[in-house]
Amino acid sequence: MLLTKPLTTNSNPEFKKRLRATVIKYSVILCVAAAYLVFVLCTGMGIPCLFHESTGLKCPGCGISRMLASLVRFDVVSAFWYNPFLFTTGPLIIAYLACCEVKYVRFGDRQMGKWEIIMWVELALAIAYGILRNVFPI
After folding, report:
1. What's residue 44's pLDDT?
2. Residue 82: CB atoms within 10 Å
3. 22, 63, 88, 103: which has the fewest C-beta neighbours closer than 10 Å?
């Protein structure tokens, strides 16, 4: 349904307002992420994981900064081992979020209906991964 309706609303002021807001939002996110990544690459320091600092256990997100830094250096093997779960499921998350944003810009609606089950499954898998990575450390 997302791609079946023609995009005839580009003269609609609400469409332009949503498009502008979305472009600004993701431009800011990309600039902040790029600045953080440059900081990590230059200093070797990242934001410490509060969960890991307080419990000594790894959360499902531990290793994301190192994974992204490795991907920037095209070191795919190291990137995978820093966080195998997000390395493999990250593209699915990005695709889902992109579809949500496109639907919002085009129609003013972010609800994805039955496709939202993908994110609930992703959340359940992330929790399971967080448990398993501490029970069976790699």
Report:
1. 82
2. 19
3. 88
Supply the pTM of this predicted model: 0.75
* DSSP per position, 39-77: HHHHHS--PPPHHHHHHSSPPTTTTHHHHHHHHHTT-HH
Residue with the larger pLDDT of the pair 8 and 101 = 101
Model confidence band, residue 9 (pLDDT cutoffs 50, 70, 90): low
Task: Give the Cα separation of 42 and 59 in Å (integer).
Answer: 25
Half-sphere exposure of residue 40, counting CA atoms within 13 Å on the CB side? 20
AA identity, residue 78: S
At residue 4, the pLDDT reads 56
The domain ranges of the chain are: 16-135
